[in-house]
UniProtKB/TrEMBL annotation:
<feature type="binding site">
    <location>
        <begin position="130"/>
        <end position="138"/>
    </location>
    <ligand>
        <name>5-phospho-alpha-D-ribose 1-diphosphate</name>
    </ligand>
</feature>
<feature type="binding site">
    <location>
        <position position="78"/>
    </location>
    <ligand>
        <name>5-phospho-alpha-D-ribose 1-diphosphate</name>
    </ligand>
</feature>
<keyword id="KW-0808">Transferase</keyword>
<keyword id="KW-0460">Magnesium</keyword>
<dbReference type="InterPro" id="IPR000836">
    <property type="entry name" value="PRTase_dom"/>
</dbReference>
<dbReference type="GO" id="GO:0004845">
    <property type="term" value="F:uracil phosphoribosyltransferase activity"/>
</dbReference>
<feature type="binding site">
    <location>
        <position position="196"/>
    </location>
    <ligand>
        <name>uracil</name>
    </ligand>
</feature>
<dbReference type="InterPro" id="IPR029057">
    <property type="entry name" value="PRTase-like"/>
</dbReference>
<keyword id="KW-0021">Allosteric enzyme</keyword>
<comment type="function">
    <text>Catalyzes the conversion of uracil and 5-phospho-alpha-D-ribose 1-diphosphate (PRPP) to UMP and diphosphate.</text>
</comment>
<protein>
    <recommendedName>
        <fullName>Uracil phosphoribosyltransferase</fullName>
        <ecNumber>2.4.2.9</ecNumber>
    </recommendedName>
</protein>
<dbReference type="InterPro" id="IPR005765">
    <property type="entry name" value="UPRT"/>
</dbReference>
<dbReference type="InterPro" id="IPR050054">
    <property type="entry name" value="UPRTase/APRTase"/>
</dbReference>
<feature type="binding site">
    <location>
        <begin position="201"/>
        <end position="203"/>
    </location>
    <ligand>
        <name>uracil</name>
    </ligand>
</feature>
<keyword id="KW-0547">Nucleotide-binding</keyword>
<dbReference type="InterPro" id="IPR034332">
    <property type="entry name" value="Upp_B"/>
</dbReference>
<keyword id="KW-0342">GTP-binding</keyword>
Length: 212
């Protein structure tokens, strides 16, 4: 598994505002979108392209366009949805699938409650969006779900990750899967409630507010 932690002053600046307890939801959503666009720029470095012939106002030439089948973007519900706009702005031809996984706050176990994905993902480059790679269980389940449908090239884009979560994901993967994690910051670790430290709190709540 390849891990890419993006070191860039713009990413660090936006992340600092995002972490701040006093940042309101509207600003938080906007910052997540901007951050994902910056992360997606790196995450799509190996996206498959094909050569195409075009004519400029001056001459005929060749260029590249994103190849078929189009990459598929898979936001993990609910917090991953907040990352979708930032990703599709950069790759508007990508298809979008959805995967709904939820975490039991006591046992930290993960279960699937929704999915909308093609049955066959062979030859598809998959981009999973989930802001918080905490214990790693959600990403393990998501990536294994995609692998079970034939995907072999999966990039996970996160805002924060923990060293222990990354280790859990790496140890769960088969040898023939090409999995990359692109993350704005690898934080210190988890607290006893499963939150990333220093983190930014509950990403879903900060994006969309708390439902009583
Ligand atoms: N999920 C979150 O939203 N925040 C954390 O800190 C950990 C998991």
């Amino acid at each position: 598994m390849e891990i890419l932690e993006i070191n860039h002053p713009l990413v660090d600046h936006k992340l600092t505002v995002l972490r701040d307890l006093h940042t309101p939801s509207a600003t938080f959503r906007l910052l997540v979108e901007e951050l994902v666009t910056l992360l997606a720029y790196e995450a799509t470095r190996d996206v498959h392209v094909k050569k195409v012939g075009i004519t400029t106002p001056v001459t005929a030439t060749t260029g590249v366009k994103i190849a078929d089948p189009a990459p598929i973007v898979v936001p993990i519900l609910r917090a991953g949805l907040g990352m979708l706009e930032g990703m599709t702005k950069l790759v508007p031809t990508a298809e979008v699938g959805f995967l709904g996984l939820q975490r039991d706050e006591e046992t930290l176990e993960v279960s699937t409650y929704a999915n909308r994905l093609p049955d066959v993902l062979t030859d598809r480059q998959c981009f999973v969006l989930d802001p918080m790679l905490a214990t790693g269980h959600t990403i393990v389940d998501s990536v294994h779900y995609l692998l079970s449908r034939g995907a072999r090239d999966v990039t996970v884009i996160c805002i924060l990750a923990t060293p222990e979560g990354l280790k859990t994901v790496a140890e769960s993967l088969p040898d023939d899967a090409h999995v990359r994690i692109v993350v704005a910051s690898i934080d210190e670790g988890l607290n006893d409630r499963g939150y990333i430290v220093p983190g930014l709190g509950d990403a879903g709540d900060r994006l969309y507010g708390v439902i009583d």
